[in-house]
Amino acid sequence: MRARLRDWARAALATLVVLAGLSIAWVALYRAVDPPITSPMLADRLAGREVVRSNLPLDALGPRIAWAAIAAEDARFCLHPGFDLEEIGRAIEAWRNGAALRGASTISQQTAKNAFLWNGRSWLRKGLEVWFTVLIEVLWPKERILEVYLNIAEWGPGIYGADAAARHHFGVAARDLGVGQAAALASILPNPKAWRVDSPSLADRRRTVARGMGDVRLVLGECLPFARE
């Protein structure tokens, strides 16, 4: 019986080592190769919905959409190692004070989820998200994390990629977005299938993001040199 348990343990350990190695190789590959598809894109296509996607280098997207996304989703993007413990602490404190528990996922976590995993709330998926977040923070520079994020995030029903979003919503390339337009796009990132860039209910959020763009711009110099205008 003990021998059988040892055999099972060895087999399980060997399997975990192989899976870990494959995941590391996968993340290393995506440092240079763009993700061909993500689970949300696949779900849209399987459901027969149109998918419009763009995929551009970070410097071709222009700095404003980068400022806006960071201001809206992860103001401390350049200051944390993938997990924003300060934001997590604030979310927990607000929950203890009676507020609804809000998400505190960083851009790195969202990139890990969108590029490598599926949507869901299971503990398995969350555990894998932590693992892949660690891997991309170790194996990719911050510029690559942001580039992949901007190109695979959903910016409207079936609209993937910041440039596709800019052309769909405003009829311009991402690099030609104004501050207000970039802020409007980033404002819908938490719920892109339901929120509209011109929704009156998001006016305060758009203004907050626009103000935040100026703040994050000041801390991006060493982390994201391209974003200095």
Biggest sheet, spatial arrangement of strands: 1-2
Give the termini separation.
Answer: 67 Å
CATH architecture of the largest domain: Orthogonal Bundle
What is the mean pLDDT?
Answer: 89
What structural class should be given to the helix and strand makeup?
A: mainly alpha
Question: Any overview of this molecule?
Answer:
The chain is mainly alpha-helical. The protein folds into two domains: 1-33; 34-227, Biosynthetic peptidoglycan transglycosylase-like (Penicillin binding protein transpeptidase fold, Orthogonal Bundle). Helix content is 60%, strand content 2%. The protein contains eleven helices and two strands; from the N terminus they run H-H-E-H-H-H-H-H-H-E-H-H-H. The protein has helices at residues 2-32, 39-46, 58-61, 63-73, 85-96, 107-116, 123-139, 142-152, 162-170, 179-187, 203-217, and strands spanning 52-53, 159-160. The chain has a two-stranded parallel ribbon with strand order 1-2. Helix 10 crosses helix 11 (203-217).
Task: Considering the chains and any ligands shown, give keywords for the structure.
229 residues; Penicillin binding protein transpeptidase fold; 2 strands; 60% helix; pentosyltransferase activity; transmembrane; Glyco_trans_51
Secondary-structure map:
Blueprint: H1 2-32, H2 39-46, E1 52-53, H3 58-61, H4 63-73, H5 85-96, H6 107-116, H7 123-139, H8 142-152, E2 159-160, H9 162-170, H10 179-187, H11 203-217
Helix pairs in contact: 1-7, 4-10, 4-11, 6-7, 6-8, 10-11
In a few lines, what is going on in this structure?
The chain has helices at residues 2-32, 39-46, 58-61, 63-73, 85-96, 107-116, 123-139, 142-152, 162-170, 179-187, 203-217; strands at residues 52-53, 159-160. With 229 residues, the protein is an all-alpha fold. The protein has a two-stranded parallel ribbon with strand order 1-2.
